Amino acid sequence: MKDSSKKSALFQLLGLALIFVILSAYVLGSFYVRSRSEAMDYIEKKFISDAEDRGDQVETRLSGLAETAAPIGSLLGKAGLQDREESVRLLGALADNTDAYLAVYAGPSGSGVDSRGRDRELSGEAYFSMLEETAFFYGQDEGTDEKNALIAAVPCRENGKTSGMLYVYLDSCRLEEMLELPAYGDKAFYLLTDGGGTIMAQGGYPGNFAAEGNLKKAMGRAEFDGEESPDTAWKKIQGYKEGTIAVSMDGAGYELFFSPIGINDWRFYVGVREEFLANSRNEYLAPVRKTIVGILLTVGLFSGLLLITNFINKYFYNEHKKVLEEKASKDLLTDLSNKTATEYLIKDYIETHPDSQGLLFVLDVDNFKKINDTQGHAFGDEVLRKLGTRLRGECRITDIVGRAGGDEFIIFMKDIKEESIFIKEAQRLHRFFGDFQVGEYVKYSPAASIGVAVYPRDGRTFEELYKAADSALYSVKRNGKNGVAFYETKMNVKME
Known about the structure:
Blueprint: H1 2-79, H2 84-96, E1 102-106, E2 111-114, E3 119-121, E4 135-139, E5 149-158, E6 161-171, H3 175-178, E7 188-193, E8 199-204, H4 215-219, E9 223-224, H5 230-239, E10 243-249, E11 252-260, E12 267-273, H6 274-284, H7 287-328, H8 339-352, E13 358-365, H9 368-375, H10 377-394, E14 400-405, E15 408-413, H11 420-435, E16 448-455, H12 462-478, E17 483-486, E18 493-495
Helix pairs in contact: 1-2, 1-6, 1-7, 9-10
């Protein structure tokens, strides 16, 4: 039996060794045959990836600038031009702490002020308009400090409406400073253009590609392989997500790699001299590198098997862990989320949906101690258990319903689109307790005091919202219980 087992193990090892030898020979031989075409593909992908990465850097920097400006825009929406000193202070802080060289706030008429305290009139600028969403523009010699600028336009809102625009200007001439551009010397260049070919930023040595400030016009003087023409080459650029064009300018051959950056119809280009590409391909074809790649592929196969095994083990481990976490996040009496889980879910929603509206309800069962004292703790538990079940059914499946402890429950209603729905939802929850009964033989109808806070009006964090709703809750208790109150800065409004 043992001999049979050993022979089986030996045959398995020999089989694996044979497979390894055959696979290695096949990989090395196939790689040698395909190495030249693969070298060309590799270099092309490398520079297309370079164009994508630099385009992503531009997009990330502009989007990051807009995200940084958004809170300032909210404050400017409140301050406006009425509080000029505060507006200048906010604009100056934004310009001083970002890569922007200037920030301008403009009202609906186009009149405004900049980060240096100077009056500005933007009504004549092509990019000026009252927008509902953040947008990006290119200002070419538009007069703002006489610089060509990449512009982030951020709406400034007051009471949910756009009351002005915040414009943040990034000097387009700082492309090489802003981006981590590889050092290719005079063998490569970089361009950022709009859909019409206007060159918004450049780096390296573009030569006559940038002579007229427009890549489309420059390509009209270039030469192309085969039946390619300037018009068909430009259509190819506009029609493909990313790719490459072979072009000759002033007798020198180039490969022009391009990729969209994810903003408007802007594209990023990497232009590389043909001789540099040829040298790169020759380096890629080195015999030592071919051998290393073949070995790496073989090792990668076995590594892949180990990864698959590890993945399966981790999958079952994570499934088991998920079950345990779900149990730990539940309130044992009501099967709702417990206080910790409820707070986590609400915080997660607030973090991922900063522009949405929601309602936070905090409710206490009135005179619950009396229920326990007169009906017994078992009946009190039944009240809480049935109340949890009914509250979960009363809310949408996307809403967050949890028990904070004792007789306190928390409800967070997501994505409330209109303010007119606020009171309707509060009244509906209040009416729910009018119909709610517990008990098999003797019916008992508990009442509740409910406090409501509006996100983000009454708070942008869970702690602020809970404090506001709790304050509204206690205003109901002070006024006789069994009611609903919204939190407001100056007063509470009770609904019977």
